[in-house]
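To whoever is on call:

I kicked off a structure prediction for a single chain this morning and the downstream step that reads the tokens threw a length-mismatch warning. I double-checked the sequence; it's 585 residues and nothing unusual in it as far as I can see. Pasting both halves so you can look.
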Amino acid sequence: MTAFGGRRHQRRTGMAQQPAWLLGLLALLLTAMGARLAWLQLGHGAENRILADENRVRLVPRTPMRGRLLDRRGRVMAGNMLTYNLYLLPREVSDSRWAQLRPRLSSLLRLPEPLLDGQRLHGANPEGYRIELVADLNPSQVLRLKEQLPSLAGLQVDQDYRRSYPNGVVGAHVLGYASPITEEEYRALQEKGYRIQDRIGRIGVEAVYEPHLRGEWGGQQLEVNAVGQVQRVLGEKLARAGKDLTLTLDLDLQRAADEALSSVAKGAIVALDPRTGAVRAMASRPNFDPNVFAKGITTSQWTELNRPDAPLLNRALQGFPPASTFKIVTTTAGIESGKMNAQSTLPTTSSFCYAGMCYSDHGSFGAIHFPLALAVSSNSFYYQVGLKVGEPELFKAARRYGYGSYTGIELKAEESPGLLGDAAWKKQVLKEPWTPVDTITSAIGQGALQVTPLQMARLYAAVANGGYLVTPHLVEGPQRPKPQLMGLKPDTLKMLHQGLRMAVTEGTARVLNDPSLPPVAGKTGTGEDPPRPDHAWFGGYAPADKPQLVIVAFAENSGGFGGTVSAPMVKKLMEVYFHKGANAR
């Protein structure tokens, strides 16, 4: 302490010089900051750590490779192709940033800006997953992008797998296709491990065996810096590939079926092993190329696939009037009912009259028995058989062959049970009583009857194998039902075997009486569909004495006859099966 001017001088600090109100305000601010830190650290520490991680950790999902579909010899019918895709990271690309990126991408990839906008909008998802902006980049696009990527923050070029169908349209309806899941499906399937970028089987085997084929997603956790550059890999979960599936189909026979159907605008072919029910080929026309879904279907392509003749519809599983092929059922009803036997004969005429109405026939063959009636497909013979046995026995025989019910094939969601318009159906649906006219028309496969090509193949298999009803199937398995013994009389099978063989040697299917083929047995059919052209059918099996293969060919509204339109298709398949090794185990 010193004296100056006679007064004492005392040093004061800067804090002491501040007014009291300022000190109070400072204390209040410090208290608020402390409370805020406590709230962030203690109350919401875990939540904020997650947010911080989201800013520095990027999840890169890895698509699982879908299981392959193989034919019975292991040949690929549906596989996967390695591709390069361009992805956008939505959390790193704002609308303003996108406005800068879009013209550059359009120039680099030579793609219109509206297309890029559409992909960005279509791929938006609440989870913030990366958006597939451009799929299946070509090599020059990949090269240009990788050169520019350092200046394209928020974009990624990454590998992916695209579903591939190396045989194009061959077997398309059986194999099916896979396409992106919808938002509604994602909400329903999220708990099962599906992601918004997933693809799911839509029809055919792809849909039925979706859980077997799909695999399990994997991914990488990457640490990135403030500008999105990868610093290190924090962890990786390998994607688990789906399981391969071996089908009963034979690729050679399937290809032959698709080629044979090219002679008509609409139709179906089914080939199966009559001993087991294993489906060797199933084709439908018009058909489609499932690769269009794998690449990303356009609006015009989707419109084309939904045209009136329905290319996506599997006609092998749809019902149509069976026409004269139904005479196998009528033969069975005649003998199984006990009202006729193997020696029974009936007169045939070119015009059969009953109850004041006359019904035409394509010929008069005199008094004939069942085998010749089948061979020449005599309508007047079967009019009389139908009247003798009556409606109950006729439809009882049809049901024994599985008509009017599902076959048991895996594609039940696409399968029609057909229609057996019996007396009960007519009363319930049409509110009308059954009449003899209904019996007469039903006996030759017309009237309110619809049978699928697959159901018909099952019927021919039962005749071929000695009276066992098989379950058609596309995949072998331990739970497969065993063939069911129908309990047909020996005379029934004998008459059917003789008649179906005679149809080829001296009847309506002589185009198949070819010495280069093993003995063939079968039956033609021509179904009326006024005012449209007739349907044409042929169903048969070979070798006739020890059958290995059943084939049914159906031509929808093709005009012509079963013997001239459908039987030649069957011949093409039999040539492949018996001459080109498709029957080798």
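Update from on-call: the warning came from a stale cache, not from the record. Cleared it. Sanity check on the structure: The first helix runs from residue 14 to 17.
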